[in-house]
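Inputs:
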Amino acid sequence: MKYTIRTVASMTGLSQYTIRAWERRHHILSPDRTETNRRLYGEEDVFRLKLLKQMVDAGHSIGQSSKLTNDELFRLGSLGPDALAFPNDRNSPEQFINASIASVVRLDEEALRDSLVRGAAFLGAGPFIENVILPLLSHVESRWVEKSISIAQEHMVTAVLRTNLEQLRSSFLTSPNARRLLVTTPKGQMHELGALIVSVIAGLESWQVTYLGPNLPADEISHAATKSGASAVALSLVYPADDPDISAELILLRQNLGEDFPIIVGGRVAPAYLASLQHLDFLACQDLNEFRTALEGIK
Amino acid sequence: MKYTIRTVASMTGLSQYTIRAWERRHHILSPDRTETNRRLYGEEDVFRLKLLKQMVDAGHSIGQSSKLTNDELFRLGSLGPDALAFPNDRNSPEQFINASIASVVRLDEEALRDSLVRGAAFLGAGPFIENVILPLLSHVESRWVEKSISIAQEHMVTAVLRTNLEQLRSSFLTSPNARRLLVTTPKGQMHELGALIVSVIAGLESWQVTYLGPNLPADEISHAATKSGASAVALSLVYPADDPDISAELILLRQNLGEDFPIIVGGRVAPAYLASLQHLDFLACQDLNEFRTALEGIK
DNA sequence: GATTCATTGTCTAGAGCTTGTCAAGCAGGT
DNA sequence: ACCTGCTTGACAAGCTCTAGACAATGAATC
């Protein structure tokens, strides 16, 4: 199937004038012609025009961009193929997600870091987490499940996200009389991204967070909570859903901290554990909004 | 891809006026020109301008900075703004170590982060690692052995140090044609601080580092090395000293990468493994100086 | 302390270059 | 007739170039 210039113009968002001028002045394309000399564009041509428009929108000159091959353009844009559908919307969450995924696929750590930093700066910490980090994580997870991502790639994402979140977290100014929250994961829980996300959200809500990393025994958690003067503890449970040791840890923690101490428990598998522990009065939350509400409810 | 002055200005944060003035007055660059005399900047040029801006932002004069080569600028730049200031007692490595230890004992994460950030800024990345991070780690470890530090405290130190090192690492500008180094720890090795330290040092030596976190199987390492175009792989081995699986991973890695691919192996327990694997030609290093030497010896 | 003096970022003016847009005139399609 | 598309030439904005100038800063000298 070949497109006429009219169609191509509406597909790319360029004017017919511009497309012709680019061809005339920079020999950007040589579309096929009908017997009557009309231009006929193929998919490749449309793709190239989209890439070039992206470059120009990004502030590069058409003169320079026109000298690049499609491959080079694609790399420079560092936007995934999906990105080309919405050429005008360079700073939407989708763009940051797509750019991040593309970086992961290329195993390009620097690019990944870069797109996350820009995303956080542009969207602000809260929306960034909800609209970029969480979707990105679930995307990576689904690819992980279907084995279309390697261990190395998954490690890279984790390392970069961790740094990114920690950086967000440490960028908050904490007022000296802010309430303190201790964040960690119980023994047996190695996944820490959930805990880090929670830390950032709490920071946004003006809590002063002490983050102790994953995999902490209940005795240590309660001891640290006392020592750091925390007025609440938040735990993240992501995987697995049926470890009896974790239940035991939760019970022990409730004993140590006393009946009235606020303990927030969230994460994908939290409900699985809390179902049988309702009498222990944990504050359960399914998503970040519930987490915020839980925080507000504390003192 | 060559950039116009407009693009370069927005990439570096300098004004067009300034860029032209620097060129005119200090012959900082000789960008290519188009046939119509417009400046065209390459990646190298942008890199140099970024370095120079870093110098100027740090309070140095452009006149002096312009006399330095890119390599010299890179080294100086990573030392932080106060590299040339006079040290005094307040800012000796010992002070930073003591402040850090005190923060750990109090379980005061913010204070720990703060003293490490100031230490890194004041001493510069290289000396900071050698004179603060390493002594701090060995101090924590000895208290860990004698049980005078809790798991929570140890976790906090690890989490904060990790962030601190990652931050140092990502603060380097990477030269576009820098050699690439892949850093990780083999499967079974959960301790990642050694790998992070190595990453920072390599960054100081102008390598572009891809850091993949700990605990990566040999197949993944070799695959990632190929994919990221690395010219060397660095592994850190801290504990335990006698895991036969790790030896197996090392052997497999050597097979996958071929006889001549540079594999640097360091860390406390590295000698224990390498003793029986001498024929496989790993580059062993006992300390950071040996690591630097090993890096220099590559290509 | 007041004064030179060099350094440095910014700006202006005039000329030339790039680029998006359009009009005129022609060719073909409906 | 009416529409669309093609080529060529034109034009206004906006960029970039050089050369020169200005004000602020800070070091050196009187």
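The longest strand of chain B covers residues 180-184. Flag for discussion at group meeting.
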